[in-house]
Automatic annotation (TrEMBL):
The chain crosses the membrane at residues 33-50, 84-104, 116-137, 143-166, 178-202, 214-243. It holds the Pfam family ATP-synt_A. The lineage of its organism: Bacteria, Pseudomonadati, Pseudomonadota, Alphaproteobacteria, Acetobacterales. This is ATP synthase subunit a. The keyword Transmembrane applies. The keyword Cell membrane applies. It comes from Acetobacter orientalis.
Length: 249
């Protein structure tokens, strides 16, 4: 309790219509709004970063070029030469998730990557792409992956369902990993912030003890900055690994 009212740590994840009556009519919540903001920020970063096209790049252009080279090298090194074809998709996926993770750290903002519907949609998109690429490149040989090489055919009734279940669990693990990390971080923010509010009601002594939760929240911000980029990287590198398996003969 704080000031006679309870603190709802999960209330920050609730969706509410924005843009007034128009948002209510269109069911347009803060989640798609911040998705649009994330896309605009990434596009602005790339446009203004690459616009100078200087031989000796400035800081902004150098940052854009480093991001470009980092994702391209990751795609090509992980997938192989075919990775260049998937580079735009990997690049978009990485920076869309990264922008969503970091936007949620701003005051009064919203983390759309903390919603399982968003992360699952991204994971299913990756899953469907890998299946389509697998069928296009490997044809019916794709189904041979569900029977491990060298295994006895007598074990097929056991091994094939296990392999299929493992394959179908990919979008689930991808989506839950990102969703859970984002939710956990923001719940921790809210919990320690509520401690500060509660301790503030105990006068000078409470103010002194409130320093602890404030320091912890500052450390959590640094941790979330790291987790935000790590989760975007993990999502992108796993996508590269799945695409590598799809294009492998």
């Amino acid at each position: 309790m704080a000031g006679g009212s309870s603190i709802d740590v999960l209330g920050q994840f609730e969706l509410h219509p924005v843009l007034g009556g128009l948002g209510d009519a269109l069911r347009f919540s803060q989640s798609p709004l911040y998705m649009i903001v994330a896309v605009c920020l990434v596009l602005a970063f790339l446009y203004f970063g690459m616009r100078p096209a200087a031989v000796v790049p400035g800081r902004f252009q150098a940052a854009a070029e480093v991001c470009y080279e980092f994702i391209r090298n990751m795609a090509v090194d992980t997938i192989g030469p075919e990775g260049a074809a998937f580079f735009p998709f990997i690049f978009t996926l990485f920076f869309f998730i990264l922008a969503g993770n970091y936007l949620g750290l701003l005051p009064f903002s919203f983390t759309f990557t903390s919603h399982i519907a968003v992360t699952l949609a991204l994971a299913v998109m990756v899953f469907l792409l890998t299946v389509i690429v697998s069928l296009k490149v490997q044809g019916f040989r794709f189904f041979a992956h569900f029977m491990p090489a060298g295994a006895s055919m007598a074990l097929a009734p056991l091994l094939i369902p296990i392999e299929i279940l493992s394959f179908l669990s990919r979008p689930v693990s991808l989506s839950i990993r990102l969703f859970a990390n984002m939710v956990a971080g923001h719940v921790m923010f809210e919990i320690f912030a509520s401690f500060v509010i509660m301790l503030a009601g105990f006068g000078v002594v409470g103010d002194v003890f409130a320093i602890g939760p404030i320091v912890i929240n500052m450390a959590l911000v640094a941790l979330e900055l790291l987790v935000g980029v790590l989760q975007a990287y993990v999502f992108a590198i796993l996508t590269c690994i799945y695409l590598r398996e799809a294009v492998a003969h």
